[in-house]
Specification:
The complex is a heterodimer of chains A (171) and B (169). Chain A has 171 residues and is α+β, with helices and mostly antiparallel strands. Chain A has six helices and eight strands; from the N terminus they run H-H-E-E-E-E-H-E-E-H-H-H-E-E. Chain A is globular, with a radius of gyration of 16 Å. Chain B is globular. The chains are: A alpha+beta (171), B alpha+beta (169).
Amino acid sequence: MSVLQSTVPDFPAEVRWLLEEGYFGYLGTSDSHGVPQVTPVIFVRDGKSVFLTISKVAKKLRNIRENERVAFLVDVRDPGDLANNRAVLIEGRAKIYTIFDLLSNLRKALRVRASLLKKYPKYAAFYAVKGNLLPKPWRTTLFISRLLVEVRIERFSYMREAKPLVLGRAA
Amino acid sequence: MSEGSATAERILTEEAFAYFCTTDTRNRPHVVPVFFVFDLTRCHAYFLFSRDSKNVRNMQLRPKICFTVDVRDHVNPLENKGVMIQGEAKADLSNIRDVDREYVKHRFEEKYGWSSSQSFFRHEHAERILVEVAVRKIAYWEGPKFLSCPSFCMARNRHCCGGWRDTQR
């Protein structure tokens, strides 16, 4: 286990489950003028961070460059009962990886890549077959089309039926 | 109306959850899932929030907000669709006319199948308030295709998509 993982706070089981199994997350960013944006993304958790890859032309990437503070929500909906939704809201700081960052965190980056492929096998298969037919900003090649972004979890809250139940702070 | 605009309209009227983002005075974003109705004729969205929630406190100080409504596809990323709206929230609707309040209440009841006997502005122990969002900018996406300002809002409200453009470039 890496040092990063060993310092992970003990997330409650429900929070851990949402961060492992939640398929989509919603990334909230805001620019330096305080104008917010929220968009769906795929992600993986690694220790006390979540990792995303974001298109180089995306507005959210420009927002992160202006303001590293982000919110990230992962939820699970109950189709039988709309009020029975569960969500975890993460508040943290986003870091955009440069090539130097990637090289100096190579093991972590490879682990994140493996986790993404394992978590999203159908997306991976799609991009493997049709990725080259997509517009360049939509392809998955790191640094050519996308950048790796780490959101370091500083605080989280777990919500059930839209009510906060657990508040936590990362160690 | 283009196919993209029609799909955007359907998403905004039929999907159950919106993901609503506010910022506090230290420019920290906050995101929550929330029930909503979208009024195509006024190009306004309405939300129900707990009166004492962080979202409401944020909106009272910084009314610029963003929300996204999307349709997820777990197999094909090209089938992911969504609408993102940036706008201005009005959290204090004390001056709203009763007839308007009743209209919005009816729209929520219709969309979510809530009984009209249920107290609309109370949920268990929390008092709920109605928040109105005037739309300033709309973006619709379907896979890699993007469409700014779908025609339904442009046609019905010329103020839609009229604001904030400079800050979004």
